[in-house]
Amino acid sequence: MICTLTIVRYPKWLSWAGFLSMAIFRLPLSFNKKIGFWKLMGCGKNGTFDIVPDLRQWAVLLVSGLESGVRNQTPNSKPLIPNFLFFWWKFFRCEIWILELKAIEGHGTWDGKHCFGDLPKQTEYTGIIGILTRATIRVNKLKAFWKNVDSVASQMATAEGLITSLGIGEVPWIKQATFSIWESKDHMKQFAYQMKEHAEVIRKTRKEDWYSEEMFVRFKVLSSSGSLLGKDPLKRKL
Q: What is the pLDDT of residue 50?
């Protein structure tokens, strides 16, 4: 399944426009037949996985629908993103970073849907890989969740093979996700399964039943365009 993840950053004095866009964008996305699934999300402080939201930075995830047709192979063309969204971002002088992705592995649901299609748990793909982990946190588990994730986020920031990571979410504190990009699946697995702090948090999520819903998906990164905080994290890597 082809999808785009767009991260936009508003000028400091126009952060209110990002908040407003989360309501206005629902109309053009709801009526776009090329889009089978979409999410409008905020970001953590400075785009990281943080309990404090960053009102300047926002994310839009679009997943192709049955009527989207064959992917246009023209470089930097983004057929899923409605023109109205581009017009809005350019009008408000946003910095825009667009990732085009293909879901290749995963499990779990998002709002009860297998929004990326039926995916195998493993493939033979070994290149640069994007990872989406998202969950709906039970209200009575919020304190335990946020108490434990800070150390993991700090460790991931310096993990070998990490290219970049972003904290995103639909609902502050409750519906949270992390999108990260790694040099390879082996680098990601080394962090996920060999780092003591991360392994302990995974154990606690299962034992203490933190989540009412969760999803884990791996992506092949097809293209990267634009910039975030002045640079394209994937420049010369694809």
A: 72
Q: Is the distance from CB of 59 to CB of 5 less than 8 angstroms?
A: yes
Beta-bridge partners for 8: 58, 96
Angle at 33 between CA 180 and CA 168, to 5 degrees: 20
Contacts of 198 (CB under 8 A, 6+ apart): 152, 155, 156, 191, 192
Torsion sign across C-alpha atoms 206, 210, 214, 216: negative
Mean confidence (pLDDT) of the chain: 87
Bridge-partner residues for 6, per DSSP?
A: 60, 98
Domain 2-226 belongs to what topology?
Alpha-Beta Plaits (3.30.70)
Domain ranges of the chain: 2-226
Whether residue 60 has pLDDT greater than 50? yes
Residue 47: predicted pLDDT: 66
Q: Average pLDDT for residues 47-71, to the nearest whole number?
A: 77
- Distance (Å, whole) CA 216 – CA 110: 10
Between helix 83-91 and helix 15-24 the angle, nearest 10°, is 160
